[in-house]
Amino acid sequence: MSTNLNRQYLRKPTWLRVPPPYIGNSHKIRTTLADLQLHTVCQEAACPNIAECFACGTATFLIMGNICTRNCRYCNVTHGLPEPVDEQEISRLTEAVREMKLSYTVITSVTRDDLPDGGALVFADCISELREKIPEIKIEVLIPDFQGNAASLEKVIGAKPDVINHNIEVAKSLFPQIRPQGNYQRSLNLLQCVAETSVITKSGFMVGFGESRDDILRLIDDLASVSCARLTIGQYQQPSRKHWLVTKYYHPDEFAELKEIAYQKGFEHVESGPLVRSSYHAALAGQRDKHA
């Protein structure tokens, strides 16, 4: 297996500078999450937008613990053997959503290949309880691939979230090296299954791993071919020196070009920029017209 270990570290450009993570409403949000013993992917994955999103009173909740059964080479979430699912977690999450006065919430999880259904029932129960307790809430779920288990996916679809997001993350040519426990075609098949329902489909990927322009264009084409409706494109940033190296920092103008290309391919909403992550401006997507 080839790696990029011999490449040199690149200096971050000025457009990747972000505010410090403890500003404005951020401290209050962190306190609420800590008091309710909840995790967010914002914190666990060291998201570069954590200051902006927390300051706006939004967060992407991480359910089923904070230890992942997979070990993707770009990801900062801890890898290992997860704890048993906390049966009280959903109630605490619902309380947090109410306390934070959210109108749109994003729920994701670590990958739980140790569970028979990959955690699909937990996602479904979480959606159902939020619908019961906070009827006006809009719900987006960011799900793993459930190892291609159709019955697991159907549990989530049947709970009727507003959006089902499944990030493909990297170009096909790099998938075996960077996401060795995943499968490119399996992810596309999942998105296609969701697109055949009334639930909005969404996916996202990062650039800067060493992919070519043709790789990026093919990835956009592949996502368009399975009728994915919403798309996020962001810059990969290396969480630590043990992770995959950044091979290129794309300029904001390049992200703007990719956004235009994606709209031309038929996506209804696209977020593309150096600091974009899968949940970035998620609540705004449904409020905007197509390519206004």
Task: Describe the structure in your own words.
- This protein is α/β, with parallel strands linked by helices and 292 residues long.
- It has one domain: TIM Barrel.
- The protein is built from eleven helices and ten strands.
Series of H and E elements? HEHHEEEHEHEHEHHEHEHEH
Helix percentage: 25-40%
Note the gap between the termini: 44 Å
Q: What is the number of helical segments per DSSP (H or I, 4+ residues)?
A: 11
Set down the secondary structure blueprint.
Blueprint: H1 26-35, E1 39-40, H2 41-44, H3 50-55, E2 60-63, E3 67-68, E4 78-79, H4 89-99, E5 104-109, H5 120-133, E6 138-142, H6 150-158, E7 163-165, H7 175-178, H8 184-195, E8 200-207, H9 213-225, E9 230-235, H10 252-264, E10 269-273, H11 282-285
Parallel strand pairs: 2-5, 3-4, 5-6, 6-7, 7-8, 8-9, 9-10
Antiparallel strand pairs: 1-2
Helix pairs in contact: 4-5, 5-6
Throw out a few tags for this protein.
eight-stranded mixed beta sheet, two-stranded parallel sheet, single chain, alpha/beta, 11 helices
Task: Please sum up the structure shown.
The protein has 292 residues and is an alpha/beta fold. 34% of the residues lie in helices and 15% in strands.
